[in-house]
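Ticket #451: bound-state structure for shikimate-3-phosphate.
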Amino acid sequence: MTDQTTTPRSFSASVPLKGRVAIPGDKSISHRSLMLSALAVGESRVTGLLEGHDVLATAAAMRAMGATIERKDDGEWRIHGVGVGGLLQPREALDMGNSGTSTRLLMGLVASHPITATFVGDASLSGRPMGRVIDPLAQMGADISASPGAKGTKTLPLMVRGLAPAIPLSYRLPVASAQVKSAVLLAALNTPGITEVIEPVPTRDHSERMLRGFGAELAVEIEADGTRHIRIMGEAELNPQTIVVPGDPSSAAFFLVAALLVPGSDVVIANVGLNPTRAGLIDVLRQMGGDITEVDAREVGGEPVADLRVRHSALKGISVDPAIAPSMIDEFPILFVAAALAEGRTTTTGLDELRVKESDRIAVMATGLDAIGARVEESADGLIIDGTGGDPLPGRATIAGHLDHRICMSFAIAGLASRAPVTIDDMAPVATSFPNFEALLAGLQGAADTP
Ligand code: S3P
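RESOLUTION: The complex was predicted; output attached.
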């Protein structure tokens, strides 16, 4: 998983983007489909799985804990599960690469099995806080020893010694995090009785949808103020499923913004997952004046999906409501690029969580946007950006991607709307979530002259 070669790339002013592009599978749903299939009794089939490094790290870990996972030539994945409670002790450390989702969700699974697993990862992942999952899992009885990180955080490498039977709990999430919620729900699968997660701010609900789909007893009660109580009955038996993974809205986001920014563009992005807990960017771009229409709305794998037609638009700066942040938490880097080309000021607040993603996305975006000539000011919990009103950015800078796929792709798109090229020091991290990003982009550029 840990790749030492770097791949610098330059991106420059683009011809109009034209044509149709199909987005690879959703990363969050792909991880969960492998994990739950590996815990079902019998064979599950998954199509549309994202074959990025992060998801492959999950597949390798589930294999190391006893599941049989194979990819057929037609791209279908077949998974023979071990049953809840049946995970085996992995013989070696689980290499999570760059993937926070793999790490935090798998820690949950290990926590309630009678096994011990060591988790390691790359430099980016090894700096990310794990205390947020250690706290509830320790309350459930797992014994977890982590490395000391900066400012008292607990980080990888770490070792989880699971407890079976684990202790059910009622846990109120102190941060809006689908990963923490999911870690507790997955630990609950092999825990007797009812485990409850209380979620004051809703986050992506793929775990809840898929757990139900696999036959777990899971109920969600919503209070008047929107607080969600998610209760799951433990010692579940999961039934194998056939899953179609919809396209990832977080990957679609890059082409969405590219088409809005590059004059003359008119693109259809096919197969975009539009789960309301993920679709915040589309609302925000529409508020900014983006011309985005949904075509052929349908359901794929229990998730709402549509094709999106996107045309170049003159964007206006707005003040982004912090309440929308959880439903677009991974899309702020590319939104900041859109804001840098909009007319007027865009203000974002309440984004503290961006500081603990694959990189500190507030600081790294501020530095990079400044380097390519955007007017940007960093605050403790967001960015204030004064856009160009549609004029291209100066560009002519090399951006440090900090092992963060979404930073790399965001500045690649910024390059398409810049006078002089924008160079990304290393595009290799893009393979964690969107291996064919550059090929699909080239297709939309190449199709520009075809009628
Ligand atoms: C994810 C949850 C989010 C998101 C990440 C994927 C998931 O993280 O940023 O890319 O699949 O549950 P947090 O739960 O830390 O907000």
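RESOLUTION NOTES: Residues 9-25+246-448 form a domain with the UDP-n-acetylglucosamine1-carboxyvinyl-transferase; Chain fold (CATH 3.65.10.10).
TICKET STATUS: resolved
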